Amino acid sequence: MISPAPENVTATPNATMTGFAAPSRGSAELSSWQVVMPAGSTGPEHSVSREQVWTLTAGTLEVTCDGRTEKVTAGRTLVLPADVLRRIHSAETFEAYVVMRADGVVTVPGEEGTRVLPWAR
């Protein structure tokens, strides 16, 4: 069993992620976390090397993925494909649960190398 803990919370300028399942917390293959993004925030354009499944539990987000923008509301699930540029904008404060293979890394256009997702490790 995994319980939320302060050491599993990562705050960025755009959102707060609370890590749940991850290899560092007993999961062999998957990571899961909660994202809370305040209204008006926009994350950086990026791609992730693994598919992600986002289930919104509150609020609304707008996602631009592969040049197409969609609005996602609470109660809906969004599947973001691997290796496709995306940007998340919070039209209103939202909360979502995300699941991904634990070995996913992020690439940001214009930056060398990849970034790990600390809440997913």
UniProtKB/TrEMBL annotation:
Q: Which residues form the Cupin type-2 domain?
A: 35-97
Record's InterPro entries? Cupin_2 (IPR013096), RmlC-like_jellyroll (IPR014710), RmlC_Cupin_sf (IPR011051)
Gene3D superfamilies of this UniProt entry?
Jelly Rolls
Task: Map out region (Disordered) in residue numbers.
Answer: 1-23
Q: Which Pfam families match?
A: Cupin_2
Q: Which SUPFAM superfamilies match?
A: RmlC-like cupins (SSF51182)
Q: Could you tell me what this protein is called? A: Cupin domain-containing protein
